[in-house]
TrEMBL record:
Annotated CDD domains: HTH_ARSR (cd00090)
InterPro entries linked: ArsR-like_HTH, AsnC-type_HTH_dom, Dimeric_a/b-barrel, Tscrpt_reg_AsnC-like, Tscrpt_reg_AsnC/Lrp_C, Tscrpt_reg_HTH_AsnC-type_CS, WH-like_DNA-bd_sf, WH_DNA-bd_sf
Gene Ontology CC: cytosol
Pfam assignment, any one: AsnC_trans_reg
GO MF annotation terms: sequence-specific DNA binding
PROSITE patterns found in the cross-reference section: HTH_ASNC_1 (PS00519), HTH_ASNC_2 (PS50956)
Protein name from the UniProt record: AsnC family transcriptional regulator
UniProt keyword terms in alphabetical order: DNA-binding, Transcription, Transcription regulation
Organism: Marinomonas profundimaris
């Protein structure tokens, strides 16, 4: 899909604030409301705009502990990975799960919980009980330096 300057401006604006009304967005990108809405719909239909969400403040919700967990699996088979991944989808504490390479770990997880006690319950009560998990290495967030939700778009110009 080709993008012109207006498409890119629409994407930039929506990445910063997806709650903008169509009229507000149109004003910001220099279009009238109808053409702006058509472009947004086309970006949604093409899959470029995946979804719109509301970002919540973890700390204000009492989620004070973020762990990055490296998981090693016993076998590298599609069925083993499928079972592991489907179980993780049911755990609301898992903010992200990534299959990775270049490390001794197979997966890198970001997990958010209230405190160390809840982390221990999650780790020992659920994560290490999943069939195939052979290694777990945890690191804890001290301070988040950059926390972007937007993607770079300059390469599309």
């Amino acid at each position: 899909m080709g993008f012109d300057k207006i498409d890119l401006n629409i994407l930039r604006e929506l990445q910063q604030d997806s709650s903008l009304t169509n009229q507000e967005l149109a004003d910001r990108v220099g279009l009238s409301a109808s053409p702006c809405l058509r472009r947004v719909k086309a970006l949604e239909e093409s899959g470029v705009i995946d979804r719109s969400v509301t970002l919540l403040d973890e700390k204000k919700l009492g989620l004070k502990l973020t762990a990055f967990i490296q998981i090693s699996m016993d076998r590298h088979t599609p069925d083993r990975f499928e079972v592991f991944e489907s179980l993780l989808e049911s755990y609301p504490e898992v903010k992200s799960c990534n299959l990775v390479t270049g490390q001794s770990a197979d997966y890198l997880l970001e997990v958010v919980v209230e405190d160390m006690e809840r982390y221990q319950e999650f780790l020992l009560g659920r994560l290490t009980r999943i069939a195939g998990v052979t290694g777990v290495h945890s690191s804890f967030l001290l301070r988040r330096i950059i926390n972007r939700t937007s993607l770079p778009l300059d390469h599309l110009v």
